[in-house]
User: What shape does this take?
Amino acid sequence: MDTPLLDRIAGPEDVKKLSKLQVIQLCGEIRRFLVDSVLHTGGHLASNLGTVELTVALHRVLDSPRDKLVFDVGHQCYTHKLLTGRKAGFAHLRQLDGISGFPNPRESVHDAFIAGHGNTALSLAIGMAWAKKLKGEPGWVVAIIGDGAFTGGMVYEGMNNIAALDNLMVILNDNKMSISKNVGAIARYLTQLRADPEYFRVNRHLSDAISEVPLIGPPLRAFLSQAKAMVRRAMYHSTMFEDMGFQYFGPLDGHNEEALERTLRNLCARTGPLFLHVVTTKGKGYPPAEENPGEYHGVSASSPGYVPDPEVSAPASFSTAFGKALCEAAAADPKICAITAAMKYGTGLQFFGKAFPSRFFDVGMAEQHEITFAAGLASQGMTPVAAIYSTFLQRAYDQIIHDVGLLQVKVVFAIDRAGLVPADGETHQGIYDPAFLSQVGIPTYSPSNYAELRYWLLRLLRPDRTGPQAIRYPRGGEVKALASYGCTGRDYDFLQDPVGAKAVLVSYGSEVEDVLAAASLLAERKIVCSVCKLVKIYPFTEELLHDLMRFDVVLFAEECIERGGIGQQLTACLCQLGWQGAMVCCGVDNTRLTHATVPELKAIMGLDGEHLAQTLQQALQEKEERL
Assistant: This one.
């Protein structure tokens, strides 16, 4: 692709040298490059297309890295990466040894902080701004926050603590979307603020009247901006942001780079805290993404001509299998409700939302509220299903302990993207939930195929089941080898149990595929071993423990954090029963996993078939040497 201006950008200083016409050309080149590159590699597309002009304006006005740009979540940071010398890295975006899809200070001095979860930018920016003041350092700290983040509570905790930070600026990137459509009172408030025709009618008439005053001079022109603020306050009785201590400016067209740049320069001549409201179009410049911004929030490699419909079922996956099974259960039980935190399509709940709209709740980007809200529903006899990504469930750990755990109310946690996750890297791995749910005593199930998912979900939703329960499943679709085993309805199954086996490989979920591969490699080396697949991964049944005690060596493999994981808890239970064998726990021992494919991550962690086979073979040799 021909991008002559973009090719010359090695850093923000090069952006500052461009003429006005070149800036327009640069924005066009960036947008074309993003469409071509991200559709080839996969990544976050619509959100990045919506913030091209805003990011260019920021780098033309501010002085990074002295001035800190803090992106909320980071889905919109691709233009920032392009303008800070990382264009070549987009060929391997979100791939092993390539650049991250999120800001990361280990990647560039221009990335102020790592980001992957929402609602965090304002709190981070406040901390950075205070640090600058305490150290006497110059420069602004600018938080770029999407309107979807305002559906989460952490933003308001930050707004309540801005004090009189004169070096803080917040930019609201208002695109009317988070990932699913924004919901709730805050979304309605922002819609009113940006679109109320009365405000714009009065504003336009006021501007016309002032322009007709004879001999209008600089004092009256300066008064114009104050008059606008007066009109806005009169109409809205001030804005929420001003009530919280900000000086509010906007709404402003987020695709008019010249106006953005001019406004930012004027704001930087003031003292903060400042709040700039910018209205953008998610997917700007690429019609399929503009028409379906939710579907194009994150894309895999695809043809540029492909235009998906977000209301149509995605290709077969655990998420859609869950969504359809939940609809089946809800049709028979009017007490079943479904809750998501801005991830309707990602969790497969679009089917439930259509079939049972009165029992479907999208609470916005507010995982803590999701869980406590579910507890409230459960306390009154409803059966809430909280569908949530594993990486986001950890944000609600206190609510799991306090609001669900103490009263043991019946909340079913449907945990999507469980285990290792490709591309998004260290911020999105689903490696903690088995450990922390078991520590709270929540029964947890991990099906390895669609049949098991459907069977156990329907079972957990039955009226005779009480208390909190969890079912977790990986991203993507089922593996044919694991699908072939179907569902026995047992808590665990021995997939292989040859006579004379002294060792057993134990696992759950998608990792069972690697355990089976290890068993095949060991068989080629004349080492006979059994393979045990768990579905109920916690708590352990007495039958399971006694079945495993007959082996000299037990290797437990899991896509979970090793320390405090299911394997270590199984070890403790076996030892308490007097087992004298050798236990080998293979899990994730590095919580800062890079962005890579799942097979690459498993190889790095020693969780692939070859590494597991070597580990078990070595354990058997060591056991024989001790005898």
Notes: The two ends are 66 Å apart (CA to CA). The first strand starts at residue 43 and ends at 44.
